[in-house]
């Protein structure tokens, strides 16, 4: 397991061009690492991520042309699909503000845990933009339902940790969200590497398939494939022997 910390605490980890580039580089490096199975994503200081830093566009400046602005837009949005495409499970530990692009990063994680001071807000609509941005309008309805998502997208209001838990945006609220994220990581690591990777892949794909039959067809093929792994045999033997399994990702 590794921890990835957004580190611009003086700006509540708002995304500058440099931070965006750094996070892309980290995700690219992690994608090729077979020795890392879980990633905990969090932020330094008081916030998780306050979204795009409107005062720091880096060399993109205020983006004078549609082409330049669109390139930056795609660069930011690709962080969300980058999180989804990682073979590792991503657990977001949200201890403060997760707004705008910060909310998108949290939604792009596979699991979210929150601290008591966590706040979640779409925010885009409050700065004169569409509330539908960086994958949020696709992800949020699938996590909390269309009705709640419509309200949050249209109003931009902030949701505290308890409300986020009630609506299913986070799975738990803990005094120490990093520690809670590490607990989730430990539970994930107790399972077979390929089984976990395939579960993540299938779950994300299931959000896009159009029917129960297509979903079951996907499950069937994946299940048969994992049943041929040595780790499956090891898990069955360990259960029978009443001992912890020793997985080798084979």
CATH topology of the largest domain: 2-enoyl-CoA Hydratase, Chain A, domain 1
Net shape: globular
Residues in β-strands, percent? 5-15%
CATH architecture classification of the largest domain: Alpha-Beta Complex
Number of separate structural domains: 2
Low-confidence stretches: none
Total count of helical runs of at least 4 residues: 10
For the sheet with most strands, the description reads: 5 strands, parallel
Helix content: 40-55%
CATH first level of the largest domain = Alpha Beta
**Overall mean pLDDT score?**
94
Radius of gyration: 19 Å
Task: Give a count of the beta strands, DSSP E runs of length 2 or more.
Answer: 8
Pathway: Lipid metabolism; fatty acid beta-oxidation
Keywords: Fatty acid metabolism, Isomerase, Lipid metabolism
Protein name: Enoyl-CoA hydratase/isomerase family protein
InterPro entries: ClpP/crotonase-like_dom_sf (IPR029045), Ech1-like (IPR045002), Enoyl-CoA_hyd/isom_CS (IPR018376), Enoyl-CoA_hydra/iso (IPR001753), Enoyl-CoA_hydra_C (IPR014748)
Structural summary, described in words:
- Pathway: Lipid metabolism; fatty acid beta-oxidation.
- Belongs to the enoyl-CoA hydratase/isomerase family.
- Keywords: Fatty acid metabolism, Isomerase, Lipid metabolism.
- This is Enoyl-CoA hydratase/isomerase family protein.
- It comes from Actinophytocola gossypii.
- The protein has 250 residues and is of the alpha/beta class.
- It has 2 domains: 2-188, 2-enoyl-CoA Hydratase, Chain A, domain 1, CATH 3.90.226; 191-241, Lyase 2-enoyl-coa Hydratase, Chain  A, domain 2.
- The chain has 10 helices and 8 strands.
- The chain has helices at residues 17-31, 66-85, 101-108, 136-144, 146-155, 161-167, 177-189, 193-206, 212-227, 230-241, and strands at 2-6, 38-43, 89-94, 97-99, 111-114, 119-121, 159-160, 172-173.
- It has a 5-stranded parallel β-sheet with strand order 1-2-3-5-8, with helices on both faces. It has a 3-stranded mixed β-sheet with strand order 4-6-7.
- Strand 2 (38-43), helix 2 and strand 3 (89-94) form a beta-alpha-beta unit.
- Helix 4 (136-144) crosses helix 5 and helix 8 packs antiparallel against helix 9.
- The longest helix has 20 residues, at 66-85.
- It is globular.
- The model has no long low-confidence stretch (mean pLDDT 94).
